[in-house]
Amino acid sequence: MSRVLSWVMLGVSIVAMGAAMVLGTSAAVPYFGPTWPFLTFGGSPSSATVTTLTWIAAVSAGAGVLSGLYALRGGAWVSPRRLLVAGAVVACVYALLPPTGSVDMMNYAIYGRITDLGRDPYVTTPLRLAHTGDPVGLLLPSGWQRVPTVYGPVMTAIQWFAAHLGGNSMARIIFVLKWANAAAFIGTGIILDRMTGPDPVRRLRACLLWTANPLILFWMVGSGHADAFAVFFLVAALYAARRSAFAGGLLGGAAVAVKASFLFPAAGLVIAAWLSPARYRRAVATVVGLLLVAGGGYLLAGPAALHSLNARLGRKKDRYLPVPQFILTHHGLYMVWMAALAVALTAFLWWRSGLPFALWRRPSPETQRLPLDVLPVAVLAFGTTLVSPLQYPWYDAMLLPMLALLPYRRMDWTVIVRGVMLGVFTLPGVRVNGYQHLGVRWANLIWLAVFVLVVWRGTRRTAADPPALAGTPGKPAPISSPGPPSSASSPAPAA
């Protein structure tokens, strides 16, 4: 029954979201000028119509993924490769449809256009481009008109490439970007499949969490957020690090050079290298790789890139985390407050995961049973993302691949529920109203309390009871750990 429910709900979600995308300009699809080469009916559906469609899509996506994960209790119920291919096909279809759920892709196109015209996107604002009469700049959305780009140099290069191919057409630039997003999304799914092989249950779980997850597929391809590229580089770094710490560092640096928030999980690559047998050599190689790409990229971008990022952190308009007003009005105190929250949650997750606090000691035989090449990255990703002042559903793109590579199945439902919750509050997405901010603030706070409770009760892994983390209450269902880089469980390519 759960298998049939999963198929039905996944299909409903994909179709409902596709319908919202193809109908035309609406509260879900922003106006971006002439729509060619996108496939669209060119209509103007009502806000109620697209809101209903997107909310149905979000809820049915969660139901489909959760029922599919529940069906795994009886073993793999469909070929992982078949589901992987199906997700890739849907990604390609979504790449043909107009951008939906936010105006971020329009901002990407404008920043790319600024760069292609030979200007500095870290200094030049979209409004200044519009004042020149540029056809792309004239379509600038509200909200970011006076904000230079806050993305890293690798993302800026991707935006420049799309703008160079798309010329003076907003639609063509976005079209190129969407296909680049689809390639990054599919590539991430393929690498995850390789990393979790050959166990069909683990492969299918990874596919349900990522490639066949309609909600994250929508945010990464349909809505086209930059996180798709950062996640691809981060997952590729995990895969490459099993063979070359230096290559892992290079790819981790590329993730940071897409979005600076990926600095924290990228730092987990260094910790993972330190926990490996050849700790000094691998840790140094990872650090050198990170500095070459991330450090070198931001150095070339200049101090304006860091200034723009700092200005973005000071924005108070779209904060989703409840913060006392006194702290919020003092920028320095606010930064200390947020750092303290991130350190506290990261330390808690580190403790409950079973990782050794004393990093100067070599891991014990019991600790070496943990996926030490993934776990530090995952802990830092969760510990910083979940208390970020900004809480958008596409930020979960950093979390789901980490979850797919870990054996902690009890955490699956909490992360999926979070994605549905944030999706419902954010969609249809072109304009986020005050009630949506308020709803996310308190709903996310309640969710975070539930998540901490689930972690407290379900993720402590010990040598005495390894299956307890991977199973469900009353019926353990262990999933083999990827193991350390040299273990026999990590031969399959991934990434």
Based on DSSP secondary structure assignment, what is the total number of beta strands?
0
- The low-confidence parts are 461-495
> What characterizes the major β-sheet?
none
Please indicate the count of domains: 1
State the end-to-end distance: 33 Å
**What's the gyration radius in Å?**
22 Å
| Class based on secondary structure composition and strand pairing | mainly alpha
Query: What do the pLDDT scores average to?
Result: 89
**Share of helix among residues?**
55-70%
Overall shape: it is globular
Please count the helical segments: 21
- Strand content bin: under 5%
Helices and strands, in N-to-C order? Answer: HHHHHHHHHHHHHHHHHHHHH
What are the SSEs and their pairings?
Blueprint: H1 2-22, H2 47-71, H3 80-95, H4 104-116, H5 126-131, H6 153-166, H7 170-196, H8 200-209, H9 214-222, H10 227-241, H11 245-256, H12 263-274, H13 279-301, H14 303-313, H15 325-328, H16 331-353, H17 375-385, H18 399-404, H19 412-426, H20 434-458, H21 467-470
Can you describe what's shown?
61% of the residues lie in helices and 0% in strands. It has 495 residues and is mainly α. The protein has one domain (2-470). Helix 7 packs antiparallel against helix 9. The relative contact order is 0.12.
